[in-house]
Amino acid sequence: MVLPNDPAKRFTLDRLGTLAGPVVSRISDYNADAVARVHSQVDALFSSTFAEHTYAAFYDPKDDKIVVNTDASEVVLRDALAGDWEMVKYEAGGLVPLATRWADTSPFWGGAAVTDGTYLCTLGFNALKSGVSKMVTAGHCFPSNGLSVWSPGSGQSMGTFANKTCVSGNDYALIGGASYAPKIYIGGGTSTTGYL
Question: What's the rounded Cα separation, in Å, for the pair 72 and 138?
Answer without folding.
Answer: 39
